[in-house]
Amino acid sequence: MAEAYIGEIRMFGGNFAIRGWAFCHGQLMAISQNTALFSLIGTTYGGDGRTTFALPDLRGRAPVGFGDGPGLQSVREGQKLGAEQAHLTQQNLPPHTFSTKASVAIPAVTNSRSVENAPSASTYLSSLSVPGNSETGVYAAGEPNTTLAPFDVDINLGTLGGGEAVQTRGPGLGMNFIICLEGIFPSRS
């Protein structure tokens, strides 16, 4: 591997860290054994600053440039952003309404003498007359000749969704990020 700058981070396809490099897994490092790297990154990624400092933790994270991009949220160096999943609530959705209107017209027969107890494809609601104690049907054959008075219908649109988290992470490929511990100390230009 070509000579690298201390603090340089590279992607590496192997399952081990190269000699003089360490995985970017957020581990604490002793300042006394890594003074050059500590002088470059300090406690940007963690540590107490007296005896330890932390390496960047890129496990499951995508690196982004820090600063103030036009039209973007400001990002500080070492700041962790985002989440793998999010729970959507009504406050996350654009305003929307559901409206419904139900118009009900029920055909009926008013002049039939032949009534039945059960509906069929050729019967309609009929006028009800109860002579004595006999059983009376409410459905009659024939053409409907009236419509019952209109009425309102309550329709419950219900609650949709199960409250499950929504994945927010795009497609990716797990790779190792390694940081150079031993190499050329970078000079400022």
UniProtKB/TrEMBL annotation:
Stretches assigned to coiled coil: none
Residue ranges of every copy of the Phage tail collar domain listed in the record: 7-63
The organism's place on the tree of life at top rank: Bacteria
Pfam families attached to this UniProt entry: Collar
Name of the protein in its database record: Tail fiber protein
Organism whose genome encodes this protein: Gilvimarinus xylanilyticus
